[in-house]
Amino acid sequence: MNNFSKIPQIVLPGSKSITNRAFLLSALSGGESRIYKPLYSDDTRYMMDVLKVLGYSVNEHSDFVEIGGRPRITPGKTYEFYIGNAGTTIRFLTTFLASLAGGEFVLKGETRMHERPIRGLVTPLQQAGARIEYLGADGFPPLKITGKSLNFETIALDGSKSSQYITSVLLCLAALNPRARVHVEDLVSKPYIDTTLAVLRS
């Protein structure tokens, strides 16, 4: 993550998915970032709460949020994160937490969250070396994630289920390995991927 360039500031329209993209990219950048006009919602509040627990500075101002620092993981500690029914948050965090070496994390939420499939993201990450377990029904949250350094060259994803699986990987690869290739089959939500790429370019 050390080679990822700093993001000085980002100006956003009101969107929880774009806001969460920007929050996560800011954390990955390793510098101080300002995200202007973020949309506050359950999804984005849960994301901010997770980043704070991980050791990032998250400061709210009148029209922007400032995020900075790097994660401070306590070896041997299991971090449990409750994220309600925040779909973007669990999908974006799954790849991110899987790449945080030395950490052990549990992602859980409401009963409805535990009925939302996530195999389409978890399986490709496992194949790429990530250590992720299902704590309940196979293919569904809650998840136990043991972070490790991920440095894969290629990953294949099914684009027919959720574009957020692809976004989760793209966001982290921007910091982990910008040269890695993401192979996507049956992409059905290209505009959302275009949104992710636009945020990455900003």
Describe the structure.
This protein has 202 residues and is α/β, with parallel strands linked by helices. It has one domain (9-201): Enolpyruvate transferase domain (UDP-n-acetylglucosamine1-carboxyvinyl-transferase, Chain), CATH 3.65.10.10. The chain is built from 6 helices and 10 strands, in the order E-H-E-H-E-E-E-H-E-H-E-E-E-H-E-H. The chain has helices spanning 16-29, 42-53, 87-98, 119-127, 163-176, 190-201, and strands at 9-11, 33-36, 57-60, 64-68, 78-82, 104-108, 131-134, 143-146, 154-158, 181-185. The chain has a 4-stranded mixed β-sheet, with helices on one face. A 4-stranded mixed β-sheet has the order 5-6-8-7, with helices on one face. The protein has a two-stranded parallel ribbon with strand order 9-10. Strand 3 (57-60) and strand 4 (64-68) form a beta hairpin. Helix 1 packs parallel to helix 2 (42-53) and helix 3 packs parallel to helix 5 (163-176).
When the domains are counted, the total is 1
The low-confidence runs, each spanning 5 or more residues with pLDDT under 50, are none
**What is the mean predicted local confidence, pLDDT?**
90
- Summing up helix and strand content along with how strands pair, one would put the structural category as alpha/beta
**CATH-derived topology:** UDP-n-acetylglucosamine1-carboxyvinyl-transferase, Chain
Helix and strand sequence: EHEHEEEHEHEEEHEH
Q: What CATH architecture would you give?
A: Alpha-beta prism
Number of helix segments?
6
Question: Short summary of the structure?
Answer:
This protein is an alpha/beta fold and about 200 residues long. The protein has 6 helices and 10 strands; from the N terminus they run βαβαβββαβαβββαβα.
